[in-house]
Specification:
By secondary structure, the chain is mostly beta strands. The protein is built from 3 helices and 49 strands.
């Protein structure tokens, strides 16, 4: 063991402060050898690193005072030594308010007062460095910490917003509001204003006794609203700060006010009781029909009935930027500057749909030259005087769709308008379980014959005798079928919703088998760098344009990002453990090669109508008999006819396998007698178990081998019926549509060892092939190694199930 540390495990480096640079030497003995250090377990503080023989860096933010425990391994010349260490990071920081305490500048131009009946949007700001560790600041007013002005609220982000309610008005009966001038407890304080030009302000006996110029009694009582805002980091740290909002009445800024003094420094000469208009009309004015008279009222929210409001059309969308796009009303429409109404006859429009944008400024005028303005940009769409006549193309009867087969059905309507996008929605009824309708009219998915956890299936009623099914149970003298015919209504509407038509459709369910069938796939689990390389390729819009894809929202079509290759379609669905013996022979970890990029077409059965095209990579099994012959010193095992070419027999017979007391299989060191593409590994075989079916008592010299080729994989799957199951053989309907469609050579492909890349619209495959060629993407940089099957359905489990190969020694 390497003797390098001068402390025992459990040594504590002490407490570090977040964001403070550190350089702590490791506790080492004097040793000049080039020792390598690495973290092998635990959690090392983020922001720190081991550099040379020291811990360096700046600890990152932590939510709370945190203790980190980690193990450092020192290694040199095949010797190692481990030590466990501790370090604490002192992290939580109190939030810090940025907004100054006291009066808030919530008024126009950041004045420290605000008129009542005025909208407010003001942010109280704070900061906390712990937010880098994932914390969020939350603002609130605790119970008993004061109140905001009525009408305002404080949200968790620190935003004070709302419309301030009117201040309390002073009644005439309350008179001046001086001491004993109003009823006891009528107000919280005496609001009367003490005169500053009466008694004691003149020389003695120069004026009549009790002479003074009376002050004007205010109509509303100004109020200071004081409240304490608490900000929390969501953990344990909080901070409080006291704020005030001063609300005044509009009469406070009129010329007859005798209260305000110029020397107060609180108010300014441009203070006004004039309020800026508030728009209440939304920016989107909707869609109007051409060749009609229209009136659109542009409204503002009248908080007070004061001042004349006029409306103006701005020449540009942005009044402050003369280079912005022009502000244009629809042709034929005018703006009434007094009422704010847009009105006029919109003439005939040749285009189907046109959009107009314009900016209107509402200005409120007060006394003299006082005014306040606010601008808003509106959008209106004009629909041309063109009839949108729609008709259905798809007949009401959609035919028979077998269960468990991927649907290629599509609902289609036509419109008299060119380039009109039609939207399809399900109005009533329901689709068969497992199918959905997308907005483009595609019926996506496959019908579930039987229910499983989390998904519905067809319902089947039948008679039984002694527990055996003998016939279907019918009602109403065979006039009623249960879950075999689905009726539903779909609405097709144009993009403006001006025209829509409905139709009732019928799908008849075909259930040719009373059993479920599954599909078997293989996929690769490449390293992250290779997977990222493929993701960059497959997600490249320049190679696979989305407008060329077939059903881009359907998981069964569009872009295939899962690197999944079909190995067998149509095997009876059974319990997962029943498939294990199926892959006990001829199955071992295998690497496939990428071949040529090809295109295939899929046509609707019984027609020449192309449904889609598929771009795929032809995959190659270099150990398959057709492509790479086995070495000449191996011959076919003729004595085992029932397995056809699934086994081979060694020519030499001197490789004896025996079992010793440890129950290990051992084999000879003569590696030349084994069929393998990689150097054989000298190691003991697996334990002898009762489920081993790859060894025979008569073959004590271990001459029989089970070639690991994809054709033998498929033969093993087909032989599943020997286990009591039923596989679907020579029934092409379970293959993907493109494998069972006639191609340009007037032949169907049948099963094809292929990796689909994308499914595209008819007559677009050549363009995508050219894109792939021009991208110069090299598939040889990827690795398609598989070590398991993926079966898409097993009894009691509706999702993917993995069947891992056993990788036995006698498989080659």
């Amino acid at each position: 063991m390497l003797d390098i540390w001068n402390v025992k495990s459990g040594y504590n480096f002490g407490t570090l402060i977040e964001n403070i640079p550190i350089n702590i030497p490791l506790p080492l003995k004097n040793n000049t050898n080039p020792i390598k250090f690495e973290i092998i377990s635990g959690k090392f503080p983020p922001g720190l690193r081991i550099e040379g023989r020291s811990i360096k860096g700046s600890p990152k933010e932590v939510i709370d005072f945190t203790t980190f425990k980690f193990c450092i391994r020192a290694s040199y010349n095949n010797e190692i030594s481990d030590r466990t260490f501790f370090v604490q990071i002192d992290g939580p920081d109190q939030p810090v308010f940025i907004t100054e305490e006291g009066l808030l500048p919530v008024g126009p131009n950041q004045t420290y007062f605000i008129l009542d009946k005025t909208p407010i949007e003001f942010f109280i700001q704070a900061e906390d460095f712990d937010t880098a560790a994932g914390q969020e600041l939350r603002f609130f007013i605790s119970s008993g910490d004061g109140l905001l002005p009525p009408g305002l609220t404080l949200d968790s982000n620190g935003r004070v917003h709302g419309l301030i309610n009117p201040l309390p008005s002073v009644f005439v009966s309350d008179r001046t509001g001086g001491y004993d001038a109003v009823n006891f407890d009528a107000y919280g304080y005496d609001f009367g204003i003490t005169s500053d030009n009466g008694f004691d302000t003149f020389n003695y006996d120069q004026v009549t006794y009790d002479y003074f110029a009376p002050s004007k009694v205010p109509k509303k009582l100004n109020r200071n609203y004081e409240f304490i805002v608490t900000v929390s980091d969501g953990h344990s740290e909080i901070k409080k700060r006291k704020f005030r909002i001063y609300v005044v009445g509009e009469d406070f800024f009129k010329a007859d006010n005798t209260i305000i003094r110029a020397a107060s420094g609180f108010y300014r000469a441009d203070n006004t009781d004039l309020r800026i208009p508030i728009w209440s009309t939304p920016a989107n004015l909707g869609t109007l029909r051409a060749n009609n008279f229209h009136i659109i009222k542009l409204d503002i929210y009248e908080v007070v009935s004061y001042g004349v409001v006029q409306y103006y059309l701005e020449p540009n969308l942005d009044p402050k930027d003369p280079t912005s796009p022009a502000s244009v009303l629809p042709p034929g429409m005018k703006l009434d500057i007094v009422s704010g109404e847009l009105y006029g006859i919109i003439p005939y429009q040749e285009d189907y749909l046109k959009s107009y944008q314009f900016t209107i400024t509402a200005t409120r005028f007060g006394r003299g030259e006082e005014s306040g303005s606010v601008s808003k940009t509106f959008t209106v769409k004009i629909l041309g005087e063109i009839d949108s006549n729609m008709t259905w193309v798809t007949p009401a009867y959609l035919g028979i769709l077998d269960v468990n087969l991927i649907s290629n059905l599509k609902i289609q309507a036509s419109s008299s308008l060119a380039n009109n996008k039609i939207r399809y929605t399900l109005i009533s009824g329901q689709l068969p379980p497992g199918l959905t309708l997308d907005s483009g009219g595609e019926i996506i998915g496959k019908i579930n014959q039987y229910s499983s956890p989390g998904r519905k299936g067809l319902t089947t009623f039948y008679d039984t005798v002694n527990g055996q099914r003998v016939s279907n149970l019918t009602f109403d003298n065979n006039q009623t079928t249960v879950d075999k015919i689905f009726k539903f209504v779909i609405r097709a509407s144009d993009q403006t919703l001006y025209s829509a038509i409905d139709r009732k459709f019928i799908i008849e369910i075909g259930t040719p088998d009373n059993k479920l069938f599954s599909n078997i796939y293989v996929t690769t689990y490449m390293p992250l760098d290779k997977r990222q390389l493929f993701n960059d390729f497959i997600n490249n819009e320049g190679i696979f344009p989305s407008d060329l894809l077939y059903r881009p929202t359907d998981i069964n079509y569009g872009i295939r990002r899962d690197l999944r290759m079909l190995m067998f379609a149509g095997i009876e669905t059974r319990d997962a453990n029943e498939y294990i013996s199926m892959i006990g022979l001829n199955h071992k970890k295998k690497r496939f090669r990428f071949g040529e990029i090809k295109k295939a077409i899929a046509t609707m059965p019984g027609t020449r109508q192309t449904v889609y095209e598929v771009i795929y990579v032809q995959m190659i099994d270099h150990q398959d008999f057709k492509d790479d012959k086995l070495p000449m010193n191996l011959t076919v095992d003729n004595f085992n006819k029932r397995h056809l070419d699934l086994t081979i027999k060694m020519v030499k017979a001197n490789n004896v396998i025996s079992a010793d007391a440890s129950n290990y299989f051992w084999k000879s060191s003569d590696q030349s007698m084994y069929v393998t593409k990689e150097p054989a590994v000298k190691r003991p075989l697996e334990y002898i178990t009762v489920d081993r079916n790859d060894l025979q008592v008569s073959d004590f010299r271990s001459r029989i081998r089970y070639p690991n080729t994809y054709t033998n994989w498929r033969k093993r799957i087909k032989s599943f019926k020997d286990l009591g199951g039923t596989t679907v053989v020579n029934q092409p309907k379970y293959l993907p549509l493109w494998m069972r469609s006639f191609q340009e050579n007037r032949q169907d492909l049948g099963f094809n060892l292929a990796l689909p890349l994308c499914f595209c619209l008819p007559n677009t495959g050549e363009e995508i092939l050219l894109n792939i060629k021009n991208s110069n993407f090299d598939f040889k940089r990827l690795d398609f190694t598989v070590d398991r099957y993926i079966i898409d359905n097993v009894n009691g489990y509706g999702a993917d199930k993995f069947l891992v190969f056993q990788n036995k020694e006698v498989v080659v």
